[in-house]
Amino acid sequence: MNKSLKQQIFxxxxxxxxxxxxxxxxxxxxxxxxxxxxxxxxxxxFFHFLAQDYxxxxxxxxxxxxxxxxxxxxxxxxxxxxxxxxxxxxxxxxVIFIFKIVTRNxxxxxxxxxxxxxxxxxxMFTWTGFxxxxxxxxxxxxxxxxxxxxxxxxxxxIIQNKKFCLIxxxxxxxxxxxxxxxxxxxxxxxxxxxxERKINNKIxxxxxxxxxxxxxxxxxxxxAAPGNYVRMDQMSSDQNISIFSQLLYFIHIFRYNLWPHTMxxxxxxxxxxxxxxxxQKNSKVSIIIYSLTLxxxxxxxxxxxxxxxxxxxxxxxxxxxxxxxxxxxxxxxQSITITLIYRFFKKSYxxxxxxxxxxxxxxxxxxxxxxxxxxxxQEIIAESHxxxxxxxxxxxxELHGETEPYGITFEAITCDSSNDNNKAFAAFYNFKTVKAExx
Length: 439
Prior knowledge:
By secondary structure, the protein is mostly helical. The chain is built from 21 helices and two strands. Helix 5 packs across helix 9 and helix 7 (112-127) packs across helix 20 (349-386). It has helices spanning 3-25, 31-38, 40-43, 46-56, 61-70, 76-102, 112-127, 130-134, 137-159, 165-176, 180-199, 206-223, 226-235, 243-256, 263-277, 284-298, 302-308, 312-332, 336-347, 349-386, 420-428, and strands at residues 391-394, 433-436. A two-stranded parallel ribbon has the order 1-2. Keywords: Membrane, Transmembrane, Transmembrane helix.
């Protein structure tokens, strides 16, 4: 084993340990409690809940199957350990494979380029609340793991030009049953890929065709689920709004939304277009096709956003796509200006290293504060049980005056004991009711 490989293994292990730390600091929250209470594998209700969801809530069968299989109150320690380890591996692979994609695997993890990339990655995915969202266990399983699978497949099919037809078909089927937003966005990009390859007389990777086949099959099953329409009917504020009115409303809320950050992808798109337009390797046709695709993809979330607002979960896929698009064009671009900027970055790598340590340190400290808070809450719960108190009031998490610092997903206990999250918490910890302090 040469020195470079040892360094890369060591760096990968450090990344894994960091994410394992913050995963272990993240307590159960919101939907996690209901999943654990269901304990479907223990009580034999796994398929019952899947069928119930398909007809009454959602068609996301592969995502639902994972949460039902992994959450368990009876085997809570094993359940949390499994989820935390898988999620830590997933986040590590996510960091590493995006680096391989944007640099086209030209640089090692032990290079200055990885330090520079890691700073921008940490800044982007911490500031937007991406990491804070996907460390939450339910969101990790139902969103992050899908992103990681797609990222790895993209690397091998597009960057390495491998075929992997059977794997691509299986992944396509899995993602098709995973999330309708994934299906819509990926269909748009697959179509753009085929058009661009055809116009430029380039060979189409068979793996993409197999992936699309699986995606379409799974997508049809997902979209046909009666539960999707039950959920949309329950959440939509206006059932009779026209498509044009939905688009106008979506543009309005997209433009003025403060959290999650929406305008950041507009700025990323502008950067992408500048880098792509000044990159002599790109044809004008390719720039136009993929620029339009990036814009069109945003509107895939319009039906969901107009039904229950722009939630951070809807933004996650765009943070990934636009970040990759910008960074890839930056590393591909050999214009004089970009080359000078790149050289300056490499000379200043120590500054980026300090910035990286600062960002991950702040995020790590926030999660450690959450861990300490939860330990205090567990003491209150234990004391309440010892005193046979059935209706409890518990403190809510705050850091620097914020209940969700850096987008960390945890607090959902309200002043209303009949709130679903309050009821889930009470049921999980065997209380009659629970509500937040200072109401």
